Amino acid sequence: MKTTYKVKRLKDGRFKFTLDDELRSILYNATASVLHFDGDELPDYLFALLHETLTLLEDTLEPRLHKSQVLAMLQFASKYIDQPTQVLIVGMVQSAK
Fold it and tell me: Model-level pTM?
């Protein structure tokens, strides 16, 4: 089975994520880990932003995330994602057209 994932920059500035099940699971679990393990240390606005991101990853087939959601997810969830996957995700976001 071919893995399918890409990130597209939309006209409104959001990022549309098309993710295979494995990459979706990695992002979902990493974001959930931030909320679970680090949530008490996060400011309320950041907790809310990451929680909203988590909900979109869970409930939406092709989540459309605002730049602030993508940046927060990449910054805080990265400690729960292995290095090669981090490079893949950041590369996808940077090359989004």
Answer: 0.92
Element (H, E) at 9: strand 6-9
Beta carbons within 8 Å of 77's beta carbon, 6+ residues apart: 27, 30, 31, 33, 34, 50
Q: How many CA atoms lie within 13 A of 96 on its CB side?
A: 23
Structure tokens at 39: 């949530």
pLDDT at 2 over 90: no
The answer on pLDDT for 1 being more than 70 is: no
Q: Compute the C-alpha angle 5/3/16, nearest 5°.
A: 15
Q: Are 32 and 26 in contact (CB under 8 A)?
A: no
Going by DSSP bridges, is the β-strand pair 6-9/64-65 parallel, antiparallel, or unpaired? unpaired
Query: Which pLDDT tens digit goes with each residue over 33-57?
Result: 999 999 999 999 999 999 999 999 9
